[in-house]
Each structure stands twice: as C-alpha cells, then as structure tokens.
Amino acid sequence: MQKLREQADKDGSLCVGLDTSPSYIPEYIIKTIGSQTEAVLTYNLEIIRRIASSKSACCCKIQIAYYEAMGLEGLKIYSQTLKAVKEAGLIAISDIKRGDIADTAAAYAKAHFSGDFETDIITVNPYMGFDTLQPFYEYSMPQKGGKGIFVLLRTSNPGMKDIEQQELKSGGRVLDKTANALNSIAERFSQIYPNAECSPVGAVVGCTEESDAKLLREACPNIFFLIPGYGAQGGSAHIAGTLLAKAGGVVNSSRGILCAWQKDNDLLEKREAGCLCMSDIADSAAKAALIAKENLSNAQNIIQQN
Q1: Residues 6 or more apart in contact with residue 254 via CB below 8 angstroms
Q2: Has 97 been annotated as catalytic?
Q3: Which of 97, 177, 214, 270 is catalytic?
Q4: What digits encode the pLDDT tens for the residues 242-267?
Q5: Most buried pick, 51, 75, 145, 265, via CB within 10 A?
Q6: Is the pTM above the cut of 0.70?
C-alpha cells in the first residue's frame, strides 16, 4: 500500500477501473476483432498503454465479475490484464470483494496473491467478522510479499444504509465499528512498517456523501482509501478531495473512462456513421483519464488550501 501511496503522490490519485463489459465496445468493433473476449483484452491493453505513457493514473482496478461472466476465456484475459497492468509499471487492484471463514479465506488469499491471478491489492468484505480478514492481511507481512487489502467500509451504493449505517446498541454505526477495527489493525502494522505513511490494510470509502467523507477521514487518519463512486455514480471531485487528505487514497473511475467515447464530441461523426475503430475509443478513454486526473488534482489542492 505504501508503494501505491508513493505512486499516487507522483502520478496523481486516479485509478482507472477496467470493469470492462463487452457492451462498452461497439458491436462492429467486436466483430472486426473476432470475439468479445479478444475485444475486451485489446481495449484493456490499449488503455493501459496510453495511461502508462501519459502518467494519467497510478493504478488500475480490475473487477473480476466482468471477466467471470465471460467464462474460462474471460478469466484468461483477466489474468492477462493483471500482468499487463504490472508490466506497465502500474499497481494492480483486484476488485474481488471476497470474505469467508478460516481455510476458505486462506484459499481465496492464495488464489489472488499468487499464481495465475496474482495481484498487488485486493478488496475484501468484513461482514462475516473481522477474523475473516486475517488470512488476507497475513500476505501484507514482508515475508509474504507485502500485499495490500482494501476493506469495505462505506461503499458508494444507495443500499449501503441497510447495513453500514445501522446503529448499534453499543453505540455508533456498523461502519464506525469497522473503522475502529481497521485503526487497530493499522496500529499493529505500524510496528512492522515503522517508516510507512499508511497501513497495508486500507478501506473502501465512496465519494457520494460529504458528511461521511469528513467523519471517516478524521476517524481514519492513517488509513489509505480506495474511493469509488466518482463520475458515473454521481460522486464529486470535491468529496473525493476530502477523502484524499491525511493518509491519502486513489479515486476510481470506470464507466466514465471506458464509455467516454459515447459522449466524445470529437467522435460524433464517426459514431453516427458507425465507423469507429479501437484506437478511437481508446484515445477517448485516455483523454477522459487526463481530464479526471486534472479535476481530482484541482479538488485536492482546494481542500489543502482550506
């Protein structure tokens, strides 16, 4: 996680979400390339190459569900996408949201921190209990590769209120209890990584609610955040800027980048004529990434000045 923080400081806080559905690519481009999986992989590789060259993002988040939905061939291109992200010098975040007990959690951890699906950081779900996190954050130890995990804390979906915002009889909300647990884990890791500026165990905090953003950033000063909800989900750069204070974080944008070609005025004629090519839509995605990086940087500077 410290490496991701350093890369975000250097190249900006944008995380490009490669939650790449075949439906995001024009059907005639898919036919030209040959298959949905080949088209998705080609699109991913073209985007990765462009954002690595322009330094518009520090990392990529790959949502495994989109690849699982394409079957075995989808999982092959998931693995190839992870490798391409890392070979490009970017940090790979696998959005898998796993959470289970004991040996099952250990198997999930092994599956995603080694072998064909090895990644740098994963997302995990804590709602079967905090003991379920241990098999994952064991891989955060230096001797196990120093991997990172992002724990769901305050997600960006409207239904988060059904669980995360529920009041507890003991006081506070479920998300407050989760935040306290993450702070305790961070304190333990501060003994292992005394020179690190953040814990290897981070949190997922959406940028869709300003009041929670302020509270959680103050409550978790040493926790690095993965910040979803920006762009297509309605989250603002201003709220993201609040969450980027203190230990920092990265702000994910998926559809806003992957589907940028659909609203790109420079592509209007080609879009209407049905003659776009892969380079056109990848260039549009790269342009959207640069704009997002600039917007986030401006918001972060405003927050810091205040």
Answers
A1: 16, 17, 18, 19, 61, 63, 231, 232
A2: yes
A3: 97
A4: 999 999 999 999 999 999 999 999 99
A5: 51
A6: yes
